[in-house]
From TrEMBL:
Record-annotated membrane-spanning stretches: none
Necessary cofactors: FMN
Domain of life, per lineage: Eukaryota
UniProt-listed SUPFAM superfamilies: FMN-linked oxidoreductases
Matching InterPro entries: Aldolase_TIM, Alpha-hydoxy_acid_DH_FMN, FMN-dep_DH, FMN_HAD, FMN_hydac_DH_AS
Pfam short name (any one): FMN_dh
Record's keyword terms, sorted: Oxidoreductase
Domain FMN hydroxy acid dehydrogenase: 1-356
Protein name, per record: Hydroxyacid oxidase 2-like
Organism: Huso huso (Beluga)
Length: 356
């Protein structure tokens, strides 16, 4: 059967992955209301078709932090790609390099940052970072990725503690013995206590605050993007603290259940930032028209998470490339049908909010 949309890959992955692996990737926090609303919210936005004289030529290219990418969809940081495909993040990196878009590598990768760079030396990559109680752990990985040529740091700020993901608890989810978080190889070897998603429990620093942006800036010359912003107040603070970008994100609905869908939070953040820094979004993007709606509200680029592991589960690198190509094709078609010849013509005149 031909794979014609992202839902086809989702169904394949659900059927073929082990149940505990599927449950881990699919998990939302608590009742999964926020996870599900990330998707449903897009249906509340209606596209208005604005006619131009000539849409025979259209261009999906855009830039993020000054670097051109082929279309405004990148890869969000998702953990443990080797659970879905034996080459894991190496396959993801190769696919992203081939398509020429941005890959945000997760701290919780089952391939090391060095292996990823070696596999796709010309790829455009950012690195997603957590801050740990032992600051030296964070400091060392920052220096590693900067030396390897990663182009930005993406600091996740919405995980002072891990959300309650019920199926992971029921399944007593753990990485299988043959896999580990490669970026921390040897760092936590002496731990004999409980683990949480591959590292010792209570390793993340819940005291993280805005002053830690200054600490991070003192370590690196890389641009800093903050992931996990959902309010105008935090957006303003991000600007004031000198970061270069914001990812409007609720961690795929895996942290605080009952919060807003990211597309619903996007407008107030874009309006607050007023172009001073770039604003991106993740969560719930499944079609090219979803991409168009997010760009119309004001996102510079969107990032996809779960669909990437569905593509890996299907055919590894080839599956991820297919996922990205389908989204690119759908976005290009949606642009044309809506009357847009290039990304710069996409604006809020294209959308209206439906109460249905």
């Amino acid at each position: 059967m031909a794979m014609v949309c992202l839902t086809d890959f989702e169904e394949y992955a659900k059927e073929h992955l082990p149940k505990a692996t599927w449950d881990y990737y699919a998990a939302g926090a608590d009742d999964c209301c926020t996870r599900d609303d990330n998707l449903l919210a897009y249906k509340r936005y209606v596209l208005r078709q604005v006619r131009h004289a000539n849409i025979s030529l259209h261009d999906t290219r855009t830039t993020v932090l000054g670097t051109e990418i082929s279309f405004p969809v990148g890869i969000a940081p998702t953990a443990f790609h080797c659970l879905a495909w034996h080459e894991g993040e190496i396959s993801t990196a190769k696919a992203t390099e081939a398509v020429n878009t941005c890959y945000i590598t997760s701290t919780y990768s089952t391939c090391s940052v060095e292996e990823i760079v070696e596999a796709a030396p010309n790829g455009y990559r950012w690195f997603q970072l957590y801050i740990y109680r032992n600051r030296k752990v964070s400091e060392q990985i920052v220096h590693r990725v900067e030396a390897l040529g990663y182009k930005a740091l993406v600091l996740t700020v919405d995980v002072p503690y891990t959300g309650k993901r019920r199926n992971d608890l029921r399944n007593q989810f753990r990485l299988p013995p043959h896999l580990k978080i490669k970026n921390f190889d040897g760092v936590f070897e002496e731990n004999n206590g409980p683990e949480e998603y591959g590292i010792p429990a209570n390793t993340l620093d819940p005291s993280i605050s805005w002053k830690d942006i200054y600490w991070l800036q003192s370590l690196t010359h890389l641009p800093i993007v903050i992931k996990g912003i959902l309010t105008k107040e935090d957006a303003e603070l991000a600007v004031e603290h000198g970061v270069q970008g914001i990812i409007v994100s609720n961690h795929g609905g895996r942290q605080l259940d009952g919060g807003p869908a990211t597309i619903d939070a996007l407008a107030e953040i874009v309006d607050t930032v007023q172009g001073r820094i770039e604003v991106y979004l993740d969560g719930g993007v499944r079609t090219g028209s979803d991409v168009l709606k997010a760009i119309a509200v004001g996102a510079k680029c969107v990032f996809i998470g779960r669909p990437v592991v569905w593509g890996l589960a299907y055919k590894g690198e080839e599956g991820v490339r297919e996922i990205l190509q389908i989204l690119n094709d759908e976005f290009c078609l949606s642009m044309a049908l809506a009357g847009c010849r290039n990304v710069s013509e996409i604006n809020r005149n294209l959308i209206q909010f439906s109460k249905l």
